[in-house]
Amino acid sequence: MPYEMELIQFLLEYSKEQIAEYIEDVHPADILDAIHQYEGNRLELLNKLPDAIIASIIDYAEDEEKYELLTMFSDAKQKEIVDEMSSDELVDLLGSIDEEEKNSIIVKMKKEDADEVKELLTYLPDTAGGIMATEFISIKETMSVGETLKYMQMEAPDAETAYYIYVLDEVECLKGVVSLRDIVVNNFDEKIAEIMNEKVISVPSDMDQEEVGRIFEKYGFLTVPVVDYNHKMLGIVTVDDIMEILSNEHTEDLYRLAGLQEGEKVAGTVGESVKSRLPWLFVNLLTAILAATTVSLFESTISRVVALATFMPIVAGMGGNAGTQTLTLIVRGIALGEFNYENSKKVLLKEIGVGLSNGIAIGLAVATIGYLWEGKPVFGLVIGLAMFLNLIVATIAGFVVPVTLKKLRIDPALASAVFVTTVTDILGFFFFLGLATVLIGYLV
Amino acid sequence: MPYEMELIQFLLEYSKEQIAEYIEDVHPADILDAIHQYEGNRLELLNKLPDAIIASIIDYAEDEEKYELLTMFSDAKQKEIVDEMSSDELVDLLGSIDEEEKNSIIVKMKKEDADEVKELLTYLPDTAGGIMATEFISIKETMSVGETLKYMQMEAPDAETAYYIYVLDEVECLKGVVSLRDIVVNNFDEKIAEIMNEKVISVPSDMDQEEVGRIFEKYGFLTVPVVDYNHKMLGIVTVDDIMEILSNEHTEDLYRLAGLQEGEKVAGTVGESVKSRLPWLFVNLLTAILAATTVSLFESTISRVVALATFMPIVAGMGGNAGTQTLTLIVRGIALGEFNYENSKKVLLKEIGVGLSNGIAIGLAVATIGYLWEGKPVFGLVIGLAMFLNLIVATIAGFVVPVTLKKLRIDPALASAVFVTTVTDILGFFFFLGLATVLIGYLV
C-alpha cells in the first residue's frame, strides 16, 4: 500500500514541527495502518506525533492494542496523551486491562478526569452508560443563537461531537436539542428556546447497547443523549461507536451459531483457533453420541434391512437444515427487534405451518425416492412419514431452543445449530428406525 | 404504545396549521409507526401533514411500502411530495417498482430533478453511485468563513447533510473539505483555503456498497464524498444509509449460510416462508442423496458389522460442524475485509493446522469411545482414523468452497452449510465405511 509507505517516509524525514502542521489532515486510522506496516522502531515514529494525534490513534486501535500502544511511552508523555483522550475512549482502554494496569493509568489522569472515568466504569460495559462519552456541549434555553456560537468557539474543540447542542435546565435535565445546522441558519438574536426541538429522543443509561443500536437504525441518528431516571443528562452515544458495536454483535451472532468463540480472527494462529473451536466440537461430540445411542437401539432392525442405514443421512441432513433455517430466522428476528413477546405465538403457529407444508412436500419426494430405490411401497411410507414428522419437529426445535434461551437471558445465538441438530437427529432417527421396527414385517 | 396513540389523536383533532407548527419536532419514523397502528382512513391522517413531512415519512418506510404510500395521494399532491424528496430517496423509491410505475413517477418531477434521477439510475444499485445523494453543499476555496456561513443559510435547508462542506475547483473536482464545526470555530474573515482539509478521503462511484460500508467503519465517518475517475465530485453517501445497508448485508450473510432467501421476515406468512425455504431444502435433498449413495455402496459391509450404522451420525455430525466453523470464519473475514488474496495462503495453512490438531484430539476421543463401545481395538482405529481425516477435509472444504465462490464473483455466503456438509458427509462416510471394508476381517 503505497500511501502508508509515503506516510512513514514523511514521518521519518521531517521535523516534529513540520509533521505537526501537516499531520492534522491525515486520518488517524491511516496513521495507525502505517505504524502497523512499519518494521523499524515504532516508538521513534510515534514520538514525532503531537499528543492529540497519538490519543486519536489509540482510539482507532483494537481494544487489546490500546494499552500496549499507550505504555510504549514514558510516564510523563503518557500523562499528556491520557489528557487528550475523551472519557469513552479511556473507558474502552481501561475495560480491556486488569485491575493493576487500570490503576497505573488512572493515577496518570487529572483528578477531575479520573473521577469521571471511575464513575463511567460503574456502568455495565454493554449498556448505554458503558459506551457513552461525557464530552457534550450543553447550553441554557435563555441563550441566543449568537451567544451559543460564541460559546461553541470555546467548547467545540473538546466535545465528542459538536453537531448537536443539548439544552439543559438548572438541574441538568434534558429539555431540548438544537443542531449546529439550526444555529447556522438562524438569526443571531433568535432565542434557543424558540428554535430548539423539545421532542428529543433519549435513552436510559441501563439500556442494552444492541437496543441503542436499533434506535440509531430506526431514526438514522448521528448521536443520542443518555439520561438517568430523573431525566438528568449523563452523556452521549455517537454513531461511529454504534457501528462498531453492531458489527461486533453481528460477528458474535454468526460465530455463536457456528460454534466459534468471540475474538477468533481469520488471520489468527492455529493455537487460537483450536482454543476457540475444540470445546464446541466436544459439545457436539456429546450430542452426536446421543444420536448414535438412538441408532444403536435399532441395530437389530438395521441388520435385517440394511437399506435403512443408506437413508439415515437423508433423515439427519434434512432435519438439521430445516431446523437451522427456523433457528436463523428467529435469532436474526430477535437481533432486529422484529420478534417479541407480542408476536411470538403467531410466529410459532406460522413455523408449525411451514413445517407441515415443507414436511408434506419433502416427505412425498423422499417417499417416492425410497419406493423407487428399494422397490417396496412400505419402505417409501416409512422414510416419507419419518421425514414429514422430522421437518415439523425441526421447525418447532428451531423456534423453542432460541426462545427458551432468550427467556433465560442467555444469548439465543448460543442455541447454535449444534443443539437444534441434536433434537432433529435423535427424533429423526427415532421416527425412521422406530417406524421401520413396527413395520419390519413388510420391509424384509 | 401510548405515544403513537397520542400522535394519532393529535393528528385527528387539530387543524392543518396547528399540526404544521408542532409536527416538525416529531421524528418521521415515529409518525410512520403511528400511521401503521392507525386502523381508520390513513389518507385522511396523511393529508393533514405538510408535504416535506410526508416526503420524510416515505423515506423512512421500507422500500416496498414507499410507492404504495406515495400513490395514495392525488396527482397534484404527489408532485409536491416528490419535489420535497432528495435524489437518493427518489432512487430508492424508483428502484423498487416496475418500468411503468417508474415512468408514472418521473413525469411528476421537475425536469431538472428528473434528469438527475435518471442519471443516478444508471449506476448499479449496489454501488456508491447507486446509493449516493446529489444534495451536498459545495463552495470555492477563495471564499471566507463568513461568506460560507451566509451561503449556507440559503443552501442548508435542501442539503442531505450540512455538517460537511465540500470545496470544488472550477471543473467541480474535489479539492478539500471543511466541517461545519471548522466554520463555527474559525474567524469570519479566514479563507476556506487556509482551513480546509485537502487529504479528503473519497470513494469512486463504482465501489461496491459493502466496501463503502467498511470505509465508514474504519474511519468513523458521517459522510463520504463520491467521485468519478477524473475526481469530479458526484454526490455523498451518509452514515444512516450505510447502517441500513450493513444491517441488510448481515441479514443476507446469515440467511444465505442457513439457506433462507432474502426478504423472509420472522413475522411473515407461511406461504412466504415456504417459498423462501423449500427450494433450499430440495437442494439439500439432492446433496443428501449423494451422501446416501455413498453409504449404499457399503451396504454389504454394514450388514456384516451393523455397529457401523450406529457411528455414522458421529462421523457426519462432527465433520459438518468443523466445516461450518471454518466456513463461517472465512465468510465473515471476507465481509470484514480481513481475508484477502495476500493472506489467503497463510489462512489455508492455518486451517489445515487446525484440522490436524482438532482431528488428533477428536480422533483420539472417538477412537477410545469406539473401542470401549464395541470392545474391538480395530473398530476404534477405523472410526478414529476416519474422524481424523474428515476433520482435515472439513477445514479444507470450509475454506475452498467460499473462496472459490468469491473468485467466481458469487457471494461466498451462498456456499452455505449445505455444500460444505455434502463434502464432509460423502468423504466422511467414504473414509469410515471404506476403512471398515478394508479391515472387515478384524471387525466381524
From TrEMBL, chains A, B:
Lineage: Bacteria, Bacillati, Bacillota, Clostridia, Peptostreptococcales
Record's protein name: Magnesium transporter MgtE
Family: Belongs to the SLC41A transporter family.
Oligomeric form and interacting partners: Homodimer.
SMART domains to which the protein is assigned, alphabetical: CBS, MgtE_N
Bilayer topology annotation: Multi-pass membrane protein
Known role: Acts as a magnesium transporter.
Limits of the CBS domain: 132-194, 196-252
PROSITE patterns assigned: CBS (PS51371)
NCBIfam families: mgtE
Pfam families, A to Z: CBS (PF00571), MgtE (PF01769), MgtE_N (PF03448)
Listed transmembrane segments: 278-298, 310-331, 352-373, 379-401, 413-443
Subcellular location: Cell membrane; Membrane
Superkingdom of source: Bacteria
Keywords: CBS domain, Cell membrane, Magnesium, Membrane, Metal-binding, Transmembrane, Transmembrane helix, Transport
